[in-house]
Specification:
By secondary structure, the chain is an alpha+beta fold. It has one domain. Helices cover 29% and strands 12% of the residues. The strands form two sheets. Strands 2-4-3 form a three-stranded antiparallel sheet. The chain is globular and about 50 Å long.
Length: 121
């Protein structure tokens, strides 16, 4: 399971002596739980890895979805980020084809998006 946000935070702590309680996080556009459908087989892996996280998997008789943004938020909180310092733009890349690329929606035919990190002393 990808843990890029936590790896970035750990690097900030080690390289720049950043204090997790003072770090602010912006979660930009990404596939939302509305569109990130997963197989029932993957649910057991998610539960094994993130079993203590509530409400990251939504299931009904037809399909299962995974809330990746909430998963990232909960991982960051475990690492010491304050909940009120996590901001989510709530934009699903799959729902907005005119604005964003989406690997899943476009079946692997996509462009690229970028991200920025700023450290203030």
């Amino acid at each position: 399971m990808q843990r890029t946000a936590c790896a970035c935070l750990e690097t900030m702590i080690q390289a720049f002596d950043s204090c997790p309680q003072k770090v602010e996080v912006f979660i930009g556009p990404g596939i939302g739980s509305c569109c990130f459908e997963i197989s029932r087989d993957l649910i057991s892996q998610v539960n094994k890895t993130f079993g203590n996280f509530d409400d990251i998997i939504n299931q009904n008789e037809n399909h299962c979805t995974w809330d990746l943004k909430k998963t990232n938020q909960l991982m960051l909180v475990q690492k010491g980020i304050r909940t009120e310092n996590i901001y989510d733009c709530h934009l699903c890349t799959s729902c907005h084809p005119g604005d964003f690329y989406s690997y899943r929606r476009d079946q692997g035919i996509t462009g690229r998006m970028g991200a920025f990190i700023c450290i203030e002393n």
